[in-house]
Amino acid sequence: MFRLLTACWSRQKATEGKQRNVTIIVIGLDNSGKSHLVAAFQRLIPSKMHSEMRPTQTTLLLDDYQVSVYDLTGDLKGREKWPNYYAEAHGLVFVVDSSDIARIQEVKIILTRLMFDKRVSGKPILILANKQDKKDALLPCDIIEYLLLERLVNETKSMCRVEPCSTIRNLPKRHQQPIVIGLRWLLAAIGDRYDELCTRHQTPSMSNISSSKNIRGCGERCSSDSLSTRGVGVVRNNHRQHFEKRQHLEHRQHVEQRHFEKRQHFESRQHLIQRSLDARPLKPILQKDGFRIRPKKNMSVTFALDVIMEEGECSRKIGAPNISKPCNSQCYDTKTPAPSADANLFKARRPKKRIETWDTEEMFLEDPRGEAFRSCDLTDY
Ligand SMILES: Nc1nc2c(ncn2[C@@H]2O[C@H](COP(=O)(O)OP(=O)(O)OP(=O)(O)O)[C@@H](O)[C@H]2O)c(=O)[nH]1
Ligand SMILES: [Mg+2]
């Protein structure tokens, strides 16, 4: 009995030891389904911890992670508070109402600004194309094309996955699987760069404090030095003045150079943001010869930064110039098996295929000309 208890205790200790604390923020426009998503997390993930300490925060236990999920409101007032959470977050979940085509331009503006924020750039982002149960919902390929996501990923170096889903309760469980699959992908992406992401959210404040201290310390030292040299010969004084003048000049040149670089960086960023915000008409994406084009299969798409990855795997060479292009015609592998049964949902597994299909046959119209997948070829732009 004693041995059994000791074994249990040491196993518990070992589990605690390798558990990682992760912070994730859930954002997106108001009414996109963020709160429903968090409720779905709670329902689908058999976690022992559902902290009710703060209404916006939920704690989940999944695989080796203790995940603090912050559900932030998406109205204008709520959006003002988002930046307070950026530095803290290891990864982000961005929820899109795929059925609200009228607000897709707003989504584009918000997402572009978000991904270009220096506290967010480089962090993994899971984009959930929610409300796929609705008849006119945009598919991931439509959303990717309209948001110019491939370009955004390339320029901001944030790994990204688009997962179609539905968060409402009364749908069959298999329609909610992508939620957990997406979260697993996000956690795996965070786990691969965990130390870097942890230091990153400490670094800005720490370095600010230490650098400001250094500057002040240096200033104090200089003034005391100059006091101590008063009264020494005029020649030495001249030398010193000359030296200080030179130092001052060099410092000014350095500051000007930095201003110039900052300005250049700012201008190029503005240019990129503006380019990304240029609206592209949705009509050609959605219509062809008067027919609404709807592929029968709905699927998730992962953007990596270097090599083509398997689903759930993450890039180790962040910052490499190329990204994989999973969203081209070859990648829409219609033979890919549908996600496995519910029983496998919570097993820590790494499926073989990168593109996950999700059968939405009953939700979409038939494609009368069999041309559905043409509209998804992102290699054209
Ligand atoms: N059809 C359908 N409706 C959904 C789905 N998810 C959420 N909704 C509906 O969308 C509405 C808004 O959902 P919420 O979860 O409150 O949205 P939110 O993003 O938290 O909104 P804010 O907190 O105001 O930013 C509700 O009426 C939900 O019933 C979905 O998957 N399918
Ligand atoms: Mg909400």
Description of the structure:
By secondary structure, this protein is of the alpha/beta class. The protein folds into 2 domains: 18-196 and 280-380, Rossmann fold, CATH 3.40.50.300; 209-277. 44% of the residues lie in helices and 14% in strands. The chain has 11 helices and 11 strands. The chain has helices at 2-18, 34-44, 76-81, 83-86, 104-116, 140-147, 149-156, 177-192, 194-228, 234-277, 283-286, and strands at residues 20-28, 57-62, 65-71, 91-97, 125-130, 160-164, 287-288, 291-292, 297-299, 301-303, 357-359. The strands form 3 sheets. The chain has a 7-stranded mixed beta sheet, with helices on both faces. Helix 5 (104-116) packs antiparallel against helix 10. The N and C termini lie far apart (67 Å). Mean pLDDT is 69; it is low at 204-232, 283-296 and 307-381. The site of magnesium ion has 4 residues, from helix 2. One of its GO terms (cellular component) is cilium.
In short:
The chain is of the alpha/beta class and 381 residues long. Helix content is 44%, strand content 14%. The longest helix is centred in the C-terminal third of the chain and has 44 residues, at 234-277.
Order of helices and strands: HEHEEHHEHEHHEHHHHEEEEE
> Strand fraction band?
5-15%
Give the domain tally. 2
Helix count, DSSP H or I runs of 4 or more residues:
11
Mean pLDDT figure: 69
Unreliable runs: 204-232, 283-296, 307-381
Ligands bound here?
guanosine-5'-triphosphate, magnesium ion
| Radius of gyration of CA atoms, rounded to a whole number | 26 Å
CATH class of the largest domain: Alpha Beta
Oligomer: single chain
CATH topology of the largest domain: Rossmann fold
Largest sheet: 7 strands, mixed
Q: Briefly note the structural class of the backbone.
A: alpha/beta
- Fourth CATH level, the homologous superfamily of the largest domain: P-loop containing nucleotide triphosphate hydrolases
Number of DSSP-assigned strands: 11
End-to-end separation? 67 Å
